[in-house]
Amino acid sequence: MTDRTEGADHVSAPSLVPDDMPAPGRRAAWLRARRRRATAIAVVSTVVTAVALTLLVTTSSGWPKVKTVFFDPTRFREDFPEVLSYLWVDVKLFVQCAPFILLWGLVIALCRNTRNPVLFPLRAFAAVYTDFFRGVPIILTVYLVGFGIPKLGLLQGEFRFLGLGGAWNSPYLWGPVALVLAYSAYVSEVFRAGIESVHESQRAGARSLGLTQGQTMRHVVVPQAARRVVPPLMNDFLSLQKDVALVSFLGPIEVFRRAGSLKDLTGNFTPLVAAAVIFLLLTIPETRLVDWYAARQRRRTGGSVVS
Amino acid sequence: MSRPKLSLRHVRKAFGDKVVLDDVSLEVAEHQVVCLIGASGSGKSTLLRCVNLLEPIDEGMVVLDGVDISEPGLDPDPIRRRIGMVFQSYNLFPHMSVLRNVTLAPTRVLGRSRAQADEHALSLLSRFGLADKAAAFPDQLSGGQQQRVAIVRALAMQPELMLLDEVTAALDPVLVGEVLNVVRDMRAGGMTMMLATHEMGFAREISDLVCFLKDGVIVEAAHPDQLFTDPQHPETRAFLERVIASGRL
User: Fold this and answer.
1) Quick one: A160 and A36 in the same domain?
2) What are the φ and ψ backbone dihedral angles of A203, each rounded to 5 degrees?
């Protein structure tokens, strides 16, 4: 036998391969089976974990007491609508703060991105500002701004601004101001990261067309940065939606504060659980909304803008 | 001959200790096409970026129409309006449609009306076979189409001088031809151009003058017929031999 035929023998050696072509679609069938198996495992492990945790909690010695104090169905039914009726206060505070946070955050971010040496003081201010407000607990900012500034007595009487109005010493003014100051520090860092993530070649492209530094920022860099920062901004705004409750420390009654006072009245914590449910009902749809927006942006620009 | 459109006089540019352009002098006459060839890192791109004032030069002068545009403190924006630049990586704006990419500068920089800019942009786009792409976003186009849009975007400013920085280097070989055709078209239209390229056959075909750069120095500058068939300098010869060995000429 020559080497060549030996070689040929060798090639045909795995005689386990059937002579007929395998049935079409067997790879797809295998993948389907594997997916079904994965789903089954996920369902079983979730159920087992849930049952185990439930058993662990409900068989603990303190559970009957915890159950009546935190999860009293009668209290829940009675207090939920009452607490819920204060939700609009939280929503209103959020809606008032959000645009100012975006605006002021962008201003701070642009200050930090200035390259002109003449504008160094602006850059320094922005750096100190973000360091300060990110470093101080928000609750302290709320106390200092909310109680401190009105105490100065510099501003008397009433203010009117963009359809809003009230007394100059109102906590409905200084609470939101404190949140705007604190949150714009975080938001400006998000914007700054977004601005820096726009590749230098985009600036070169714009400047080579004769666009000024400002026009390049406005038409080329900021719009691209804005799309990229939507997901991280969403994080900040979700926590803002919860932190508006901090304004209640200055007096305004909203969901958290009302639930707290019901707890004080009855000695039962169930209204606070109701408050938690209310915040969840508010924040979960907000998350979905932004996911939808991000997906739409990706579709519209063909894919790679957000990544 | 009247004065050159562009002239570089003893230009020197360093990044830190690294000298990237050393005593470069060069003249480009109106309607002339000058090619810069040389290995990567030889200073071709930096030279083009210096002409467009994207990089400030350290010594020497860049003279456009008899005016030293490298004068420190001079506002670069009005000068850049007169010089078009196209980059290796296209640098299109991904958040804008093709049409808006092309009309952004005419509307914002030249103050044209949107309708006027759209009309001009559409006529340019159809001239280069891109009329049906006006509403598309850059990511939906092939590399060759994107680069043609980038050229149209620069042309929409009606520049007096075009700088092309390795415009085909990022392209699939099949797509190189369509971009080179656009450059041929510009040449036929009398555009003054300076281009850095690795396409030697194209450089030979299109240019009036070819400059071979090595380590930031123009080693040899000559008419393409001369430079490609009878290079005078041993460095040029060595470079062209390597190019031939790699099958690019």
Assistant:
1) no
2) -65, -45
What pTM value is reported for the model?
Answer: 0.77
Cβ-based neighbour number of residue A114 at 10 Å: 15
Distance CA A166, CA A160 (A): 7
Kindly state which CATH superfamily the domain B6-245 is placed in: P-loop containing nucleotide triphosphate hydrolases (3.40.50.300)
**Which chain A positions have a beta carbon within 8 Å of B140's beta carbon?**
302
Scanning B112-141 for CB atoms below 8 A from A yields 137-140
Phi, psi of B61 (to 5 degrees): -145, 145
- Count the domains in chain A: 2
- In terms of DSSP bridges, do strands B217-222 and B209-214 run parallel, antiparallel, or are they unpaired? antiparallel
Model pLDDT for residues B59-72, shown as the tens digit of each residue: 999 999 999 999 98
B98, B136 contact by CB (below 8 A): yes
Interface confidence, given as ipTM, is 0.90
Average pLDDT over residues B86-97: 94
What lies within 8 Å, CB to CB, of B6 at 6+ separation is B27, B28, B51, B62, B63, B64, B161, B192, B194
Q: Please give the residue of chain A at the shortest CA–CA distance from B150.
A: A205
Range of the domain at A91: 87-252
- Enumerate residues 207 to 236 of chain A having a beta carbon within 8 A of any beta carbon in chain B: 207-212, 215, 219-220, 223-224, 227
Give tens-digit pLDDT for B104-126.
999 999 999 999 999 999 999 99
| A92 and A45 share one domain | no
